[in-house]
What does this fold into?
Amino acid sequence: MIRKISAVLMCVCLLACCFAGCSDDPQTAETAGGLADSVNDYGFEVDAEGNEVPVEYEDGKAYVLDSDGNRTGEVIDNPKNYNSAQSSKEDKEDEEEDIEPGTGPEQVTDREDVSNNTGGSGTTAAELTTLPIDEDSVPGTSESGTSVTFSDRDVKIITNMLEVPYLYTESYESNQQVPISIATHVACWMLQRENLNTNNFASTTVVVDLFSYFARTVVSFKTSCNDYTDDGATNPAPIRYNGSRDTFTITADSYEEPTHRVNITEIQDLGNNNYYKVIADVEGLDSSCKATKLVAVIQKNRLDTSLGFSVKALKWS
It folds into this structure.
């Protein structure tokens, strides 16, 4: 996968954007500058440790980038995505242009009637904070902090993010890989937010959407997606990966209906790099939902400016 990446897309892929405090401050709609005229090729490759990492291509090599978009010194000499993409680069660009209109699945709107029950001794700050990657420590769901008050808008956004259909089927901590089973449902939810009248999406769109939601790469998503969405899967999301075209298809006439409701009862400031602990009650709408409580770790950031948050950990009980 390789394409010319704009300033906004570079912010998403490389975490080069600033992490912002929780507020409705208009600064959260800004994007990082200085990359608008970039003509370099960027993409993702798998490094020696098996992790999918952002890279910059040059002279047939892939130079691994850090969270600020700078080269780390690590070089992938024979990048697989670069070689395969070069031979069909124009075809992939034409592919997005040739998608026929009028084929988009019916949308399922997010819930609007969300109550704000947050409250505490302080409120979240508006100043920007950015930490180097080696100083950024993601808290676990067992950690606790000071209760804070979030805006009505942010509470509604976080609630809808945590109400992604079938999200309750998996728990994970920040030091664990994102379960692909729930990532398939997140991918559908995020694609719906693209608001495109199509059921076919370039793989780059899906990879970036997942990166925005989880603030990290979902390892092996393309190669494993169909294992969790075929006819024999449990609660399969309506999404399939097409390897020959390097695209994803929404296979249903409609996006997924809600499976549970989340009522946030408290949000705690965990510090470090705008991390927060969300405590919520859960109501099952689908018979398979047995969870009644949720603890989530979220981060306020700009990976997706319309969301402003990423989900770092989930613990259902």
User: Anything to note?
Assistant: The two ends are 38 Å apart (CA to CA).
